[in-house]
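Ticket #4471: structure export looks truncated?
Reporter: QA, pipeline team
Priority: medium

Steps to reproduce: submit the single chain below to the structure queue and open the exported record.
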Amino acid sequence: MHSRRVYTALAFLPLFFVLVQYLHPVAFLAFVLVGILLAQYEYYRFHAHRVWFVPSAIVGSLVSVGLGISFYYGYQVPLHVGMATIVAVVGIGYLMTHIGSRTGSLTDSFIILFGTAYIGWMLGHLVLLRGLEGGIALIFFVFLVTWASDTAAYYVGSSFGTHKLAPRISPGKTIEGAVGGLASSVMMAVVAKFGFVPWLDLMDCLIVGLLLGSIGQAGDLFESQLKRHAGVKDSGTILPGHGGLLDRVDSLIFTSPAFYYYVMLTKPRTLFFS
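Actual output as written to the record:
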């Protein structure tokens, strides 16, 4: 399992670097849309035992594609709308996993809406980040900080974790792993500042590192709760050693919009660089 995780990462990272750094932005749009469709497919598979659900899920996926394309062509999400949508996603997720029967029509409607908002809308913020001035650096930053937190949380927790973080939701996660993830995200933010995002100051590194590290781990637990409610262990098997794609982007689903709104709220556009 460990070696397959490493090999998958080693194969993906250089391809991702070339995609973001050298290819046309439309290639990144295609990359994000494919990721959204695959992750949303995995999510809808949790509930695909209902016959009518399949065509409805297709409609939900097409709406997500439409959102991503609209972001690419310049649609700017008003800050109050975007933040309210994030709150709504969390609220709908809570309702789905705590209220009502999984086979009820109200819950089914929530599932369709939630799949579009949770994956299509939230992950679509990567397209918005790429569209900003200095978007290449912003994409590398959010991916690296999120991955650093995820990786450190996994390995620190596996090696030193003894205190359970949320045993009823995800028994394998530990407080030690969470602390390691937060420390790693802050350190990666500092490395990025001196590497390719000089407009960040050290206070930004601390704030963004802690923000993305904590929100990313919350996103991981959020997806774990969704899987527990649906009665599945992994979202899929598409990535050797990693499980499903949704299992890999669950943190990024939350860190992408969080970082986008942080940048829009705190940094003048004149500080960005291409």
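Status: closed, not a bug. The export was complete when the record was re-opened. Leaving a note from the reviewer for reference: The CA atoms of residues 75 and 128 lie 8 Å apart.
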